[in-house]
Amino acid sequence: MKAFISYDSRDRNRFVEEFAEKLMSKAIDIWYDEWELEYGDSLVRIFDEIVKCDIFISIISKYSVNSNWVKEECDSAFIAKIENRISKFIPVILMEEDLEIPNQFNHMLQCRIHDIENYDSEFKKLVGNILGQSSKPSLGSKPKYVEINPISGYEVFDSIVIKAIGDYMVMNGNVTLNFNQVMELTEDYEISEEDIQDSIEFLKSKDIIKYENFLGDIHPQMIKLTYYGIVKYSENYLENISDVIKDIVSIILNMGRQASEKDFEEVPAPMVVIEAIVEYFSKLGYFKFKKHFDGFMIYLLNGNGKRQLKNYLD
Question: What is the pTM of this model?
Answer without folding.
Answer: 0.63
